[in-house]
Amino acid sequence: MSRRPRAPRSGGRIRLEDRIKQVIGPAETNRKNSNHPFPNGGTLLKASRLLSLGLAVSLLLAALAPASLAADSAPPSTSYVAFGDSLTVGYEPGKSADDIPYGYVDRVYEQALLRGRAEMINYGIAGLNSLGLKNLLDAVTAEKLVKGADIQPNLPDPRADQVVSDTKALKADIASASAILITIGGNDFGAGIMTEAADWTDAQLDAFAADKIKAYSDNLTSVLDDIFAINGKVRVYVADQYSPFPNINKSLYERLQKLKDRFTEKLNEIAKGYGATSMSVTAVPVADAFVGHEGTYTHIASRDIHPNQNGYAKMAELFSKAIWGDYRSVTADSDSSPITVFVVGRTVDTPHVPALLQGSTFVPLREYAESLGATVDWDQATNTATVRYNGNSVALTIDSKTISVNGSARSIDTDPPHAHESAGETKTYIPLRLMAEGLGFDVKYVPQSRTAYINR
């Protein structure tokens, strides 16, 4: 069931959903990849295609779906792009090579899927500072070929060369993006800030803050100018910087809070300035949310400043509220079904829940197809269900590895439709993959939340 690592396509674009293993059933592929060491201890996961360490799973739709029912006639996906440092990557210390990252970008992508077809392209680079991001965007604007060391020396992220390898494609991703998410600036201050600041005078703190924040401001402004030169209509969301240090040393805590507040003030000033020119920049208020929660939102107890899952969830909530005005829980129902399934952003109101059959996740055909706007007819004599949607028809027969698409027979590589007893009825259940491959719907599965998203 495993396959050797797939190298990134030369010059290809990398989507978050391309990076991890598919776990719906035995027909799916488990993509293996090499370890990626990062600073502060630990290794950071396996990353399919290496570029997108940010998100969970997709079902590969193109292998079977007939052209008349699948991608060619499908509505376009809304595109999101993420830039930044290890927070964008979704790094956590102590993770093994088998762990799939589940950072704030991954969670925001799920929020996007609740609203329709979406893709998230993650260009996060661990260790990146604001100057490195500026240099990257300058290279993108000029479509200049660069390596990781060209944008920032000694980047600890071994994927850096591949992340920046195709600036022309990266530029195209910016041009087509609806929104861009950014976390940057934490690496500008240096790892020693949490211990050094305790001994500084107020004048020393002011001088340090003024120097670092000016450089950050200049670099971020250049980044935003480059982005808007490529796509003047894109909405950009930039997080401010939280302080991970808990209130166990009052003097140090207060100094770091002052530094955090000055950083936030500068970001708000930058965002307001772009707003005056009709460019959309939103400062995402992460910093205040972490105040008083440093111990529960970060790995600081393990001497690491990165968010833990609670912290990444809070960041995702704040980004989502900034982008869409709300944030929805996608926690799986662990008692009634193996996964939670959202159909066009809603769970299906039915007693016939998804089931684990023959090693794959199956869903009741009628309930899920009708919730997408399709009609379903049942032929008792042949045990065949015919689904009609958007002028096309697909006939599926119980226990058959062949489906009929607009009258033409096609073999399927999933488990076949299956008769299943549910809530006192015999229902036709089909593999979740077949919702995409046979019917042309968009299906994404995220293993960390055990949630599938089906969109028209």
From TrEMBL:
Pfam families: Cu_amine_oxidN1, Lipase_GDSL_2. InterPro entries: Cu_amine_oxidase-like_N, Ester_Hydrolysis_Enzymes, Mao_N_sf, SGNH_hydro, SGNH_hydro_sf. GO terms for molecular function: phosphatidylcholine lysophospholipase activity. Coiled coil: none annotated. Residues 343-454 form the Copper amine oxidase-like N-terminal domain. It comes from the Bacteria. Residues 82-313 form the SGNH hydrolase-type esterase domain. SUPFAM superfamilies: Copper amine oxidase, domain N, SGNH hydrolase. This is Copper amine oxidase. It comes from Paenibacillus flagellatus. The lineage of its organism: Bacteria, Bacillati, Bacillota, Bacilli, Bacillales.
